[in-house]
Design a protein that fits this description.
6-stranded parallel beta sheet, 19 helices, elongated
Length: about 650
Protein backbone atom coordinates (compact mmCIF):
# COMPACT_ATOMS: atom_id res chain seq x y z
CA UNK A 1 0.00 0.00 0.00
CA UNK A 2 1.36 3.43 -0.89
CA UNK A 3 1.91 5.96 1.88
CA UNK A 4 0.88 9.51 1.02
CA UNK A 5 3.30 10.88 3.62
CA UNK A 6 6.17 9.94 1.33
CA UNK A 7 5.07 11.54 -1.92
CA UNK A 8 7.83 14.06 -1.17
CA UNK A 9 10.80 13.56 1.14
CA UNK A 10 14.51 14.23 1.58
CA UNK A 11 17.02 11.67 2.82
CA UNK A 12 20.73 12.14 3.48
CA UNK A 13 22.86 9.09 4.22
CA UNK A 14 25.95 9.54 6.38
CA UNK A 15 29.30 8.51 4.83
CA UNK A 16 30.44 6.48 7.85
CA UNK A 17 32.09 3.08 7.33
CA UNK A 18 30.83 0.16 9.45
CA UNK A 19 32.77 -2.99 10.33
CA UNK A 20 30.52 -5.56 12.06
CA UNK A 21 31.24 -8.99 13.54
CA UNK A 22 32.93 -10.81 16.38
CA UNK A 23 36.56 -10.21 17.37
CA UNK A 24 36.67 -7.19 15.04
CA UNK A 25 38.73 -5.15 17.52
CA UNK A 26 41.69 -6.67 15.66
CA UNK A 27 40.66 -4.56 12.64
CA UNK A 28 41.33 -1.26 14.41
CA UNK A 29 44.86 -0.73 13.10
CA UNK A 30 43.99 -1.50 9.44
CA UNK A 31 41.04 0.88 9.71
CA UNK A 32 43.22 3.71 11.08
CA UNK A 33 45.78 3.08 8.34
CA UNK A 34 42.98 3.08 5.76
CA UNK A 35 42.22 6.65 6.87
CA UNK A 36 45.87 7.54 6.36
CA UNK A 37 46.35 8.46 10.03
CA UNK A 38 49.53 7.86 12.04
CA UNK A 39 49.09 9.31 15.53
CA UNK A 40 46.19 7.98 17.62
CA UNK A 41 44.81 9.24 20.91
CA UNK A 42 42.96 6.39 22.66
CA UNK A 43 39.80 7.32 24.53
CA UNK A 44 38.84 4.51 26.89
CA UNK A 45 35.79 4.27 29.10
CA UNK A 46 36.92 4.87 32.71
CA UNK A 47 35.31 1.58 33.72
CA UNK A 48 36.99 -0.44 30.98
CA UNK A 49 40.74 0.21 31.25
CA UNK A 50 41.55 -3.29 30.00
CA UNK A 51 39.95 -2.46 26.64
CA UNK A 52 42.16 0.61 26.42
CA UNK A 53 45.13 -1.68 26.98
CA UNK A 54 43.96 -4.01 24.20
CA UNK A 55 43.60 -1.07 21.83
CA UNK A 56 47.11 0.14 22.62
CA UNK A 57 48.44 -3.33 21.87
CA UNK A 58 46.44 -3.62 18.63
CA UNK A 59 47.50 -0.17 17.41
CA UNK A 60 51.15 -0.63 18.24
CA UNK A 61 53.29 2.41 17.48
CA UNK A 62 50.25 4.30 16.12
CA UNK A 63 49.05 4.84 19.71
CA UNK A 64 50.67 8.02 20.99
CA UNK A 65 48.41 8.96 23.89
CA UNK A 66 45.47 7.96 26.05
CA UNK A 67 42.65 9.68 27.95
CA UNK A 68 40.31 7.69 30.24
CA UNK A 69 38.27 10.55 31.69
CA UNK A 70 35.07 10.65 29.58
CA UNK A 71 32.00 11.66 31.58
CA UNK A 72 28.24 11.40 31.14
CA UNK A 73 26.52 14.13 29.10
CA UNK A 74 29.90 15.24 27.64
CA UNK A 75 30.76 18.14 29.98
CA UNK A 76 32.69 20.88 28.19
CA UNK A 77 35.19 20.98 31.07
CA UNK A 78 36.15 17.36 30.44
CA UNK A 79 36.44 18.00 26.71
CA UNK A 80 38.91 20.80 27.42
CA UNK A 81 41.11 18.42 29.41
CA UNK A 82 41.07 15.81 26.65
CA UNK A 83 41.74 18.51 24.07
CA UNK A 84 44.91 19.47 25.90
CA UNK A 85 46.14 15.87 25.77
CA UNK A 86 45.29 15.57 22.08
CA UNK A 87 47.29 18.70 21.25
CA UNK A 88 50.16 17.65 23.45
CA UNK A 89 50.65 14.39 21.53
CA UNK A 90 49.78 15.92 18.14
CA UNK A 91 47.16 13.25 17.47
CA UNK A 92 45.51 13.16 14.03
CA UNK A 93 42.95 10.49 14.97
CA UNK A 94 40.98 9.40 18.05
CA UNK A 95 39.99 5.80 18.68
CA UNK A 96 37.25 5.55 21.31
CA UNK A 97 36.13 2.39 23.10
CA UNK A 98 33.21 2.49 25.51
CA UNK A 99 29.66 3.74 25.76
CA UNK A 100 27.92 6.91 24.66
CA UNK A 101 30.04 9.14 26.92
CA UNK A 102 33.29 8.09 25.27
CA UNK A 103 31.75 8.45 21.83
CA UNK A 104 30.50 11.91 22.77
CA UNK A 105 33.97 12.95 23.84
CA UNK A 106 35.43 11.75 20.53
CA UNK A 107 32.85 13.82 18.65
CA UNK A 108 33.55 16.87 20.79
CA UNK A 109 37.25 16.63 19.98
CA UNK A 110 36.59 16.06 16.28
CA UNK A 111 34.31 19.06 15.88
CA UNK A 112 36.94 21.27 17.52
CA UNK A 113 40.00 19.96 15.69
CA UNK A 114 38.91 18.01 12.61
CA UNK A 115 40.62 14.77 13.73
CA UNK A 116 39.25 11.51 12.36
CA UNK A 117 37.30 9.17 14.60
CA UNK A 118 37.19 5.37 14.87
CA UNK A 119 34.58 4.23 17.41
CA UNK A 120 34.25 0.81 19.10
CA UNK A 121 30.95 0.87 21.03
CA UNK A 122 30.55 -1.34 24.09
CA UNK A 123 26.92 -0.36 24.71
CA UNK A 124 23.91 0.24 22.49
CA UNK A 125 23.79 4.03 22.48
CA UNK A 126 23.73 4.29 18.69
CA UNK A 127 25.20 7.79 18.72
CA UNK A 128 28.34 6.51 17.01
CA UNK A 129 26.57 6.63 13.62
CA UNK A 130 25.05 10.09 14.03
CA UNK A 131 26.34 13.60 13.24
CA UNK A 132 24.79 14.79 16.52
CA UNK A 133 26.63 15.98 19.62
CA UNK A 134 25.07 16.83 22.95
CA UNK A 135 27.24 18.76 25.43
CA UNK A 136 26.64 20.07 28.93
CA UNK A 137 27.92 23.37 30.23
CA UNK A 138 26.75 25.05 33.41
CA UNK A 139 23.93 22.54 33.93
CA UNK A 140 22.44 23.17 30.48
CA UNK A 141 22.62 20.56 27.75
CA UNK A 142 22.75 21.77 24.16
CA UNK A 143 22.69 19.72 20.98
CA UNK A 144 24.16 20.46 17.58
CA UNK A 145 24.49 18.59 14.32
CA UNK A 146 27.22 18.79 11.70
CA UNK A 147 28.84 16.47 9.15
CA UNK A 148 32.12 17.15 10.96
CA UNK A 149 30.74 15.36 14.02
CA UNK A 150 30.03 12.04 12.27
CA UNK A 151 32.73 9.41 12.99
CA UNK A 152 34.57 8.12 9.94
CA UNK A 153 34.55 4.44 10.99
CA UNK A 154 32.56 2.40 13.47
CA UNK A 155 33.80 -1.05 14.48
CA UNK A 156 31.06 -3.18 16.03
CA UNK A 157 32.55 -6.11 17.92
CA UNK A 158 29.89 -8.35 19.44
CA UNK A 159 32.47 -9.79 21.83
CA UNK A 160 32.92 -6.37 23.49
CA UNK A 161 29.26 -6.40 24.57
CA UNK A 162 28.86 -9.98 25.83
CA UNK A 163 30.06 -9.09 29.31
CA UNK A 164 28.03 -5.89 29.58
CA UNK A 165 26.08 -6.03 32.89
CA UNK A 166 22.41 -6.81 32.47
CA UNK A 167 21.20 -3.49 33.90
CA UNK A 168 23.30 -1.41 31.51
CA UNK A 169 22.43 -3.73 28.65
CA UNK A 170 18.70 -3.21 29.05
CA UNK A 171 18.65 0.54 29.56
CA UNK A 172 21.18 1.09 26.78
CA UNK A 173 19.13 -1.06 24.40
CA UNK A 174 15.90 0.78 25.24
CA UNK A 175 17.79 4.04 24.70
CA UNK A 176 18.57 2.79 21.19
CA UNK A 177 14.95 1.74 20.72
CA UNK A 178 13.91 5.30 21.57
CA UNK A 179 15.80 6.57 18.52
CA UNK A 180 13.83 4.20 16.29
CA UNK A 181 10.51 4.99 17.95
CA UNK A 182 10.83 8.74 17.49
CA UNK A 183 12.14 8.32 13.94
CA UNK A 184 8.80 6.78 12.94
CA UNK A 185 6.84 9.93 13.77
CA UNK A 186 9.52 12.50 12.97
CA UNK A 187 8.35 15.31 10.65
CA UNK A 188 11.11 14.37 8.19
CA UNK A 189 10.45 10.61 8.35
CA UNK A 190 11.00 8.71 5.10
CA UNK A 191 10.60 5.14 3.87
CA UNK A 192 14.28 4.33 4.39
CA UNK A 193 14.41 5.30 8.06
CA UNK A 194 10.99 3.72 8.63
CA UNK A 195 12.29 0.32 7.53
CA UNK A 196 15.44 0.70 9.58
CA UNK A 197 13.45 1.81 12.64
CA UNK A 198 10.98 -1.07 12.54
CA UNK A 199 13.78 -3.61 12.09
CA UNK A 200 15.66 -2.05 15.01
CA UNK A 201 12.63 -2.18 17.32
CA UNK A 202 11.88 -5.79 16.40
CA UNK A 203 15.48 -6.95 16.94
CA UNK A 204 15.92 -5.12 20.23
CA UNK A 205 12.60 -6.34 21.64
CA UNK A 206 13.33 -9.92 20.57
CA UNK A 207 16.73 -9.85 22.21
CA UNK A 208 15.50 -8.27 25.44
CA UNK A 209 12.92 -11.04 25.84
CA UNK A 210 15.81 -13.55 25.87
CA UNK A 211 18.54 -11.60 27.60
CA UNK A 212 17.78 -12.63 31.17
CA UNK A 213 17.87 -16.34 30.31
CA UNK A 214 21.29 -16.15 28.63
CA UNK A 215 22.92 -12.71 28.98
CA UNK A 216 26.05 -13.63 27.03
CA UNK A 217 24.42 -15.44 24.11
CA UNK A 218 26.16 -14.30 20.95
CA UNK A 219 23.02 -14.21 18.78
CA UNK A 220 21.18 -12.12 21.40
CA UNK A 221 24.06 -9.67 21.64
CA UNK A 222 24.34 -9.52 17.85
CA UNK A 223 20.64 -8.65 17.59
CA UNK A 224 21.05 -5.86 20.14
CA UNK A 225 24.13 -4.44 18.45
CA UNK A 226 22.51 -4.58 15.01
CA UNK A 227 19.39 -2.93 16.37
CA UNK A 228 21.46 -0.19 17.98
CA UNK A 229 23.29 0.48 14.71
CA UNK A 230 20.03 0.71 12.74
CA UNK A 231 18.38 2.89 15.39
CA UNK A 232 21.39 5.17 15.55
CA UNK A 233 21.28 5.54 11.79
CA UNK A 234 17.69 6.75 12.15
CA UNK A 235 18.75 9.20 14.85
CA UNK A 236 21.33 10.65 12.50
CA UNK A 237 18.94 10.98 9.56
CA UNK A 238 15.76 12.54 11.04
CA UNK A 239 14.80 14.84 13.88
CA UNK A 240 13.77 13.66 17.31
CA UNK A 241 10.81 14.83 19.41
CA UNK A 242 9.52 15.10 22.96
CA UNK A 243 11.19 11.98 24.31
CA UNK A 244 14.71 13.11 23.51
CA UNK A 245 14.02 16.66 24.64
CA UNK A 246 12.82 15.44 28.03
CA UNK A 247 15.78 13.10 28.48
CA UNK A 248 18.29 15.80 27.57
CA UNK A 249 16.58 18.14 30.03
CA UNK A 250 16.58 15.58 32.83
CA UNK A 251 20.18 14.61 32.18
CA UNK A 252 21.65 18.04 31.60
CA UNK A 253 19.80 19.98 34.30
CA UNK A 254 19.37 17.33 36.98
CA UNK A 255 22.28 14.95 36.36
CA UNK A 256 20.15 11.86 35.75
CA UNK A 257 21.95 8.88 34.14
CA UNK A 258 21.56 8.91 30.38
CA UNK A 259 20.32 5.47 29.31
CA UNK A 260 18.19 4.71 32.42
CA UNK A 261 16.43 8.04 31.90
CA UNK A 262 15.68 7.15 28.29
CA UNK A 263 14.36 3.75 29.40
CA UNK A 264 12.02 5.20 32.00
CA UNK A 265 10.66 8.04 29.85
CA UNK A 266 10.16 6.21 26.53
CA UNK A 267 6.85 4.40 27.25
CA UNK A 268 5.35 7.58 28.72
CA UNK A 269 6.48 9.82 25.85
CA UNK A 270 5.07 7.31 23.36
CA UNK A 271 1.73 7.20 25.20
CA UNK A 272 1.65 11.02 25.23
CA UNK A 273 2.02 11.14 21.43
CA UNK A 274 -0.11 8.08 20.60
CA UNK A 275 -3.39 9.84 19.79
CA UNK A 276 -1.64 12.22 17.41
CA UNK A 277 0.32 9.61 15.45
CA UNK A 278 -1.81 6.44 15.54
CA UNK A 279 -0.33 4.84 12.43
CA UNK A 280 3.23 5.12 13.73
CA UNK A 281 2.18 3.73 17.11
CA UNK A 282 0.38 0.85 15.41
CA UNK A 283 3.51 -0.04 13.46
CA UNK A 284 5.65 0.22 16.60
CA UNK A 285 3.22 -2.14 18.29
CA UNK A 286 3.47 -4.63 15.44
CA UNK A 287 7.25 -4.60 15.72
CA UNK A 288 6.89 -5.24 19.45
CA UNK A 289 4.24 -7.93 18.91
CA UNK A 290 1.58 -5.96 20.78
CA UNK A 291 -1.47 -3.78 20.23
CA UNK A 292 -0.33 -1.63 23.17
CA UNK A 293 3.13 -0.29 22.32
CA UNK A 294 3.68 1.89 25.44
CA UNK A 295 2.56 -0.91 27.74
CA UNK A 296 4.73 -3.44 25.90
CA UNK A 297 7.86 -1.32 26.36
CA UNK A 298 7.05 -0.84 30.05
CA UNK A 299 6.53 -4.60 30.43
CA UNK A 300 9.95 -5.23 28.87
CA UNK A 301 11.49 -3.00 31.53
CA UNK A 302 9.70 -4.87 34.29
CA UNK A 303 10.63 -8.28 32.88
CA UNK A 304 14.31 -7.41 32.65
CA UNK A 305 14.55 -5.70 36.05
CA UNK A 306 15.23 -2.25 34.61
CA UNK A 307 14.15 0.93 36.42
CA UNK A 308 10.61 2.02 35.65
CA UNK A 309 10.41 5.34 37.51
CA UNK A 310 12.31 8.61 37.74
CA UNK A 311 12.01 8.24 41.49
CA UNK A 312 14.34 5.23 41.26
CA UNK A 313 16.85 7.49 39.52
CA UNK A 314 16.79 9.82 42.54
CA UNK A 315 14.97 12.70 40.89
CA UNK A 316 13.23 14.66 43.68
CA UNK A 317 9.52 15.14 43.06
CA UNK A 318 10.02 18.81 43.80
CA UNK A 319 12.15 19.12 40.64
CA UNK A 320 9.31 18.13 38.32
CA UNK A 321 7.91 21.68 37.84
CA UNK A 322 11.35 22.95 36.81
CA UNK A 323 11.74 20.03 34.39
CA UNK A 324 8.38 20.86 32.81
CA UNK A 325 9.36 24.51 32.50
CA UNK A 326 12.58 23.63 30.68
CA UNK A 327 10.89 21.07 28.44
CA UNK A 328 8.27 23.48 27.08
CA UNK A 329 10.43 26.62 27.05
CA UNK A 330 11.28 26.36 23.35
CA UNK A 331 9.06 24.96 20.58
CA UNK A 332 10.26 21.88 18.69
CA UNK A 333 8.58 19.37 16.37
CA UNK A 334 6.42 16.77 18.10
CA UNK A 335 3.20 15.00 17.09
CA UNK A 336 1.24 16.07 20.19
CA UNK A 337 1.05 19.72 21.25
CA UNK A 338 3.39 20.51 24.15
CA UNK A 339 1.42 21.88 27.09
CA UNK A 340 2.48 22.36 30.68
CA UNK A 341 -0.43 20.26 31.93
CA UNK A 342 0.29 17.48 29.45
CA UNK A 343 4.02 17.29 30.13
CA UNK A 344 3.37 17.56 33.87
CA UNK A 345 1.10 14.51 33.68
CA UNK A 346 3.69 12.64 31.64
CA UNK A 347 6.53 13.34 34.05
CA UNK A 348 4.46 12.62 37.16
CA UNK A 349 3.47 9.23 35.74
CA UNK A 350 7.11 8.54 34.85
CA UNK A 351 8.27 9.67 38.29
CA UNK A 352 5.78 7.36 40.02
CA UNK A 353 6.46 4.40 37.70
CA UNK A 354 2.88 4.03 36.51
CA UNK A 355 2.31 1.66 33.61
CA UNK A 356 1.17 3.63 30.55
CA UNK A 357 -1.27 1.85 28.28
CA UNK A 358 -3.41 2.29 25.22
CA UNK A 359 -5.86 -0.22 26.66
CA UNK A 360 -6.24 -3.96 26.17
CA UNK A 361 -4.28 -6.82 27.66
CA UNK A 362 -0.49 -6.45 27.91
CA UNK A 363 1.74 -8.55 25.69
CA UNK A 364 3.44 -11.17 27.83
CA UNK A 365 5.58 -13.01 25.30
CA UNK A 366 8.62 -12.17 27.42
CA UNK A 367 7.20 -14.15 30.33
CA UNK A 368 6.26 -17.09 28.12
CA UNK A 369 9.76 -17.10 26.61
CA UNK A 370 11.29 -17.05 30.09
CA UNK A 371 9.24 -20.08 31.19
CA UNK A 372 9.95 -22.06 28.01
CA UNK A 373 13.62 -21.09 28.25
CA UNK A 374 13.95 -22.91 31.57
CA UNK A 375 12.79 -26.26 30.16
CA UNK A 376 15.30 -29.05 29.73
CA UNK A 377 15.21 -32.82 29.75
CA UNK A 378 14.20 -35.24 27.02
CA UNK A 379 13.58 -33.39 23.72
CA UNK A 380 10.04 -34.66 23.11
CA UNK A 381 8.95 -33.81 26.64
CA UNK A 382 10.58 -30.39 26.40
CA UNK A 383 8.74 -29.72 23.15
CA UNK A 384 5.36 -30.85 24.50
CA UNK A 385 5.60 -28.87 27.73
CA UNK A 386 6.92 -25.81 25.90
CA UNK A 387 4.05 -25.86 23.42
CA UNK A 388 1.56 -26.39 26.24
CA UNK A 389 2.98 -23.38 28.11
CA UNK A 390 2.68 -21.18 25.02
CA UNK A 391 -0.92 -22.22 24.39
CA UNK A 392 -1.95 -21.82 28.03
CA UNK A 393 -0.34 -18.38 28.22
CA UNK A 394 -1.96 -17.42 24.93
CA UNK A 395 -5.36 -18.57 26.19
CA UNK A 396 -5.00 -16.47 29.34
CA UNK A 397 -3.89 -13.35 27.44
CA UNK A 398 -6.32 -13.67 24.53
CA UNK A 399 -9.24 -14.01 26.93
CA UNK A 400 -7.96 -11.45 29.45
CA UNK A 401 -8.34 -14.09 32.16
CA UNK A 402 -9.24 -12.65 35.55
CA UNK A 403 -7.87 -13.79 38.90
CA UNK A 404 -11.32 -15.06 39.87
CA UNK A 405 -11.60 -17.08 36.65
CA UNK A 406 -8.13 -18.52 37.16
CA UNK A 407 -9.03 -19.52 40.72
CA UNK A 408 -12.27 -21.12 39.52
CA UNK A 409 -10.24 -23.17 37.04
CA UNK A 410 -7.80 -24.27 39.73
CA UNK A 411 -10.68 -25.26 42.01
CA UNK A 412 -12.31 -27.19 39.15
CA UNK A 413 -9.14 -29.19 38.46
CA UNK A 414 -8.59 -29.79 42.17
CA UNK A 415 -12.10 -31.20 42.58
CA UNK A 416 -11.63 -33.29 39.43
CA UNK A 417 -8.54 -34.90 40.92
CA UNK A 418 -10.27 -35.52 44.23
CA UNK A 419 -12.97 -37.53 42.43
CA UNK A 420 -10.44 -39.95 40.92
CA UNK A 421 -9.79 -43.38 42.44
CA UNK A 422 -9.32 -46.95 41.24
CA UNK A 423 -12.96 -47.14 40.15
CA UNK A 424 -13.52 -43.67 38.71
CA UNK A 425 -11.33 -41.53 36.46
CA UNK A 426 -12.86 -38.06 36.31
CA UNK A 427 -9.89 -36.70 34.37
CA UNK A 428 -10.41 -39.25 31.59
CA UNK A 429 -14.09 -38.35 31.60
CA UNK A 430 -13.14 -34.67 31.31
CA UNK A 431 -10.84 -35.45 28.38
CA UNK A 432 -13.62 -37.47 26.77
CA UNK A 433 -16.26 -34.77 27.20
CA UNK A 434 -13.99 -32.11 25.67
CA UNK A 435 -13.22 -34.31 22.66
CA UNK A 436 -9.51 -34.49 23.51
CA UNK A 437 -9.58 -38.27 23.84
CA UNK A 438 -11.16 -38.56 20.38
CA UNK A 439 -8.53 -36.21 18.91
CA UNK A 440 -5.67 -38.28 20.33
CA UNK A 441 -7.40 -41.47 19.21
CA UNK A 442 -7.76 -40.13 15.67
CA UNK A 443 -4.13 -38.98 15.57
CA UNK A 444 -2.94 -42.35 16.83
CA UNK A 445 -5.10 -44.67 14.79
CA UNK A 446 -6.46 -42.91 11.71
CA UNK A 447 -3.27 -43.64 9.76
CA UNK A 448 -4.34 -47.29 9.22
CA UNK A 449 -7.45 -46.95 7.00
CA UNK A 450 -7.72 -50.68 6.25
CA UNK A 451 -8.42 -51.54 9.87
CA UNK A 452 -11.55 -51.27 11.98
CA UNK A 453 -11.80 -47.67 13.25
CA UNK A 454 -10.78 -47.06 16.83
CA UNK A 455 -12.72 -45.23 19.54
CA UNK A 456 -12.00 -43.76 22.97
CA UNK A 457 -11.19 -46.02 25.90
CA UNK A 458 -13.57 -44.28 28.29
CA UNK A 459 -13.25 -44.05 32.06
CA UNK A 460 -14.68 -47.46 33.02
CA UNK A 461 -12.16 -49.95 31.68
CA UNK A 462 -10.69 -52.12 34.45
CA UNK A 463 -7.39 -53.94 34.04
CA UNK A 464 -7.49 -57.71 34.35
CA UNK A 465 -11.14 -58.57 33.64
CA UNK A 466 -12.20 -62.17 34.37
CA UNK A 467 -11.26 -64.73 31.69
CA UNK A 468 -14.41 -66.44 30.39
CA UNK A 469 -15.19 -69.42 28.21
CA UNK A 470 -16.76 -69.05 24.81
CA UNK A 471 -20.52 -68.83 25.06
CA UNK A 472 -20.42 -67.34 28.59
CA UNK A 473 -22.96 -64.70 29.62
CA UNK A 474 -21.07 -61.58 30.70
CA UNK A 475 -24.38 -60.14 31.94
CA UNK A 476 -24.64 -63.02 34.42
CA UNK A 477 -28.41 -63.02 34.06
CA UNK A 478 -28.97 -59.26 34.45
CA UNK A 479 -32.19 -57.97 32.93
CA UNK A 480 -32.19 -56.55 29.42
CA UNK A 481 -32.71 -57.68 25.85
CA UNK A 482 -30.41 -60.68 25.41
CA UNK A 483 -27.61 -60.15 22.90
CA UNK A 484 -25.49 -62.86 21.32
CA UNK A 485 -22.14 -61.67 19.94
CA UNK A 486 -19.93 -63.51 17.46
CA UNK A 487 -16.76 -61.56 16.71
CA UNK A 488 -14.03 -62.56 14.28
CA UNK A 489 -10.51 -61.15 14.67
CA UNK A 490 -8.38 -60.93 11.52
CA UNK A 491 -5.35 -59.12 10.19
CA UNK A 492 -5.87 -56.49 7.47
CA UNK A 493 -5.55 -59.19 4.78
CA UNK A 494 -8.36 -61.23 6.33
CA UNK A 495 -6.11 -63.83 7.97
CA UNK A 496 -7.73 -65.07 11.23
CA UNK A 497 -5.77 -64.41 14.41
CA UNK A 498 -6.14 -67.38 16.77
CA UNK A 499 -5.35 -66.58 20.39
CA UNK A 500 -6.21 -62.88 20.03
CA UNK A 501 -7.22 -61.44 23.41
CA UNK A 502 -10.60 -59.68 23.39
CA UNK A 503 -11.75 -57.63 26.39
CA UNK A 504 -15.40 -56.53 26.40
CA UNK A 505 -17.32 -54.25 28.76
CA UNK A 506 -20.56 -52.28 28.77
CA UNK A 507 -23.23 -50.69 30.98
CA UNK A 508 -26.45 -52.30 32.21
CA UNK A 509 -29.87 -51.41 30.84
CA UNK A 510 -30.04 -48.47 33.26
CA UNK A 511 -26.75 -47.01 32.03
CA UNK A 512 -24.46 -48.02 34.92
CA UNK A 513 -21.18 -49.91 34.80
CA UNK A 514 -20.45 -52.45 37.50
CA UNK A 515 -17.84 -50.17 39.13
CA UNK A 516 -20.63 -47.64 39.69
CA UNK A 517 -22.73 -50.13 41.63
CA UNK A 518 -21.16 -50.71 45.05
CA UNK A 519 -23.77 -53.34 46.04
CA UNK A 520 -22.92 -55.53 43.06
CA UNK A 521 -20.66 -58.48 43.83
CA UNK A 522 -17.82 -59.08 41.40
CA UNK A 523 -17.26 -57.95 37.82
CA UNK A 524 -20.38 -58.02 35.64
CA UNK A 525 -20.85 -57.02 31.99
CA UNK A 526 -17.14 -57.32 31.37
CA UNK A 527 -14.82 -60.19 30.53
CA UNK A 528 -11.83 -61.44 28.56
CA UNK A 529 -11.98 -63.99 25.76
CA UNK A 530 -9.34 -65.67 23.62
CA UNK A 531 -10.04 -66.25 19.95
CA UNK A 532 -10.30 -69.88 18.78
CA UNK A 533 -8.45 -71.40 15.84
CA UNK A 534 -10.74 -69.49 13.47
CA UNK A 535 -10.05 -66.17 15.21
CA UNK A 536 -13.55 -66.10 16.69
CA UNK A 537 -15.03 -65.33 20.13
CA UNK A 538 -18.66 -65.93 21.15
CA UNK A 539 -20.51 -64.67 24.22
CA UNK A 540 -23.85 -63.50 25.52
CA UNK A 541 -24.64 -60.07 26.96
CA UNK A 542 -27.54 -57.61 26.80
CA UNK A 543 -28.44 -54.98 24.19
CA UNK A 544 -26.60 -51.73 25.07
CA UNK A 545 -28.71 -48.74 26.09
CA UNK A 546 -28.06 -45.02 25.91
CA UNK A 547 -26.87 -43.74 29.26
CA UNK A 548 -25.61 -40.58 30.91
CA UNK A 549 -21.94 -40.31 31.76
CA UNK A 550 -21.49 -39.60 35.48
CA UNK A 551 -22.89 -36.13 36.03
CA UNK A 552 -22.48 -35.90 39.79
CA UNK A 553 -18.96 -34.46 39.54
CA UNK A 554 -17.04 -31.69 37.86
CA UNK A 555 -17.70 -32.97 34.32
CA UNK A 556 -21.44 -32.91 35.00
CA UNK A 557 -21.11 -29.35 36.32
CA UNK A 558 -19.27 -28.32 33.17
CA UNK A 559 -21.84 -29.92 30.86
CA UNK A 560 -24.70 -28.22 32.71
CA UNK A 561 -22.95 -24.85 32.68
CA UNK A 562 -22.41 -25.06 28.91
CA UNK A 563 -25.88 -26.35 28.06
CA UNK A 564 -24.82 -29.85 27.00
CA UNK A 565 -26.50 -33.16 27.75
CA UNK A 566 -24.49 -36.00 29.34
CA UNK A 567 -25.78 -38.91 27.25
CA UNK A 568 -23.79 -41.46 25.32
CA UNK A 569 -25.15 -43.33 22.33
CA UNK A 570 -25.69 -47.07 23.10
CA UNK A 571 -22.47 -49.03 22.50
CA UNK A 572 -20.38 -52.05 23.37
CA UNK A 573 -16.64 -51.68 24.21
CA UNK A 574 -13.86 -53.86 22.77
CA UNK A 575 -10.12 -53.98 23.38
CA UNK A 576 -8.33 -56.42 21.07
CA UNK A 577 -4.68 -57.43 21.00
CA UNK A 578 -2.72 -60.14 19.21
CA UNK A 579 1.00 -60.92 18.87
CA UNK A 580 2.63 -58.92 16.06
CA UNK A 581 -0.29 -56.53 15.79
CA UNK A 582 -1.33 -53.16 17.13
CA UNK A 583 -3.85 -53.06 19.91
CA UNK A 584 -7.32 -51.91 18.86
CA UNK A 585 -9.62 -50.05 21.26
CA UNK A 586 -13.04 -49.49 19.77
CA UNK A 587 -16.80 -49.44 20.29
CA UNK A 588 -19.77 -50.75 18.29
CA UNK A 589 -22.82 -48.46 18.31
CA UNK A 590 -26.42 -49.62 17.89
CA UNK A 591 -27.82 -48.39 14.60
CA UNK A 592 -30.95 -46.31 15.22
CA UNK A 593 -29.97 -45.68 18.83
CA UNK A 594 -30.38 -42.36 20.59
CA UNK A 595 -27.70 -39.63 20.63
CA UNK A 596 -25.70 -40.97 17.68
CA UNK A 597 -25.39 -37.40 16.40
CA UNK A 598 -24.63 -35.81 19.80
CA UNK A 599 -22.64 -38.36 21.76
CA UNK A 600 -21.36 -36.67 24.93
CA UNK A 601 -17.76 -37.77 24.33
CA UNK A 602 -17.73 -37.43 20.51
CA UNK A 603 -16.91 -41.12 20.10
CA UNK A 604 -19.28 -42.11 17.30
CA UNK A 605 -17.76 -42.93 13.90
CA UNK A 606 -19.96 -43.92 10.94
CA UNK A 607 -18.16 -47.23 10.34
CA UNK A 608 -18.79 -48.24 13.97
CA UNK A 609 -22.56 -47.80 13.77
CA UNK A 610 -23.84 -51.30 13.00
CA UNK A 611 -27.06 -53.26 13.04
CA UNK A 612 -27.83 -55.39 16.08
CA UNK A 613 -30.47 -57.49 14.25
CA UNK A 614 -33.15 -59.54 15.86
CA UNK A 615 -32.14 -63.14 16.48
CA UNK A 616 -33.75 -65.84 14.32
CA UNK A 617 -34.30 -69.46 15.21
CA UNK A 618 -32.94 -71.27 18.23
CA UNK A 619 -30.63 -69.11 20.33
CA UNK A 620 -27.06 -70.41 20.77
CA UNK A 621 -26.33 -72.03 24.13
CA UNK A 622 -25.12 -69.99 27.09
CA UNK A 623 -28.22 -68.07 28.20
CA UNK A 624 -31.86 -68.93 28.80
CA UNK A 625 -33.90 -66.89 26.30
CA UNK A 626 -37.69 -66.75 26.35
CA UNK A 627 -38.50 -63.77 24.13
CA UNK A 628 -36.82 -61.21 21.91
CA UNK A 629 -33.08 -61.47 21.45
CA UNK A 630 -30.46 -59.88 19.21
CA UNK A 631 -27.67 -61.50 17.22
CA UNK A 632 -24.55 -59.44 16.41
CA UNK A 633 -21.83 -60.73 14.06
CA UNK A 634 -18.85 -58.48 13.32
CA UNK A 635 -15.33 -58.86 11.95
CA UNK A 636 -12.54 -56.75 13.46
CA UNK A 637 -9.48 -56.11 11.30
CA UNK A 638 -6.37 -55.05 13.24
CA UNK A 639 -3.11 -53.62 11.89
CA UNK A 640 0.32 -55.25 12.01
CA UNK A 641 2.72 -53.84 14.59
CA UNK A 642 4.78 -50.86 13.43
Amino acid sequence: MSDSRYSNFRYTAGPARVVFGSHTLADVRPEVERLGRERVLILADPGLPELGDRLREALGHLAVGRFDGAAMHTPVAVTEKALAVLREVSADCVVAVGGGSTTGLAKALAVRTGVDQVILPTTYAGSEVTPVLGETDGGVKTTRSSPDILPETVIYDVELTRGLPLGITVTSAVNAMAHAVEALYAPDANPVTDRLALEAIERIARALRRITADPSAEDVRADLLTGAWLAGTCLGAVGMGLHHKLCHTLGGAFGLPHSPTHAVVLPHALAYNAAHTPEAVRRIGEALGSTDAPGAIFDLLVATGAPTSLRELDLPETDLPRAVELAVAKPYPNPAPLTEDGVTGLLRAAWAGERPTLGGAPRLDWLTDQVVGTLGGEPRLRHLIGDLVRRLHGFAVDNDLTQAEWQAGIDFLTRTGQLCDDKRQEFVLLSDSLGVSSVVDALTNSRTPDTTPSAVLGPFYVEGPPELEHGSDVADGLSGVPLHVEATITSVDGTPLPGAVVDVWQSNEDGFYDVQLPDLEGPVLRGRFRADELGMVRFWSILPSAYPIPADGTVGDLLAATGRHPYRAPHLHFMISAPGHQRLITQLFVAGGDYLDSDAVFGVKPDLVVDFPAGVGTPPPGRHVTGEWRDLAFSFRIAPAR
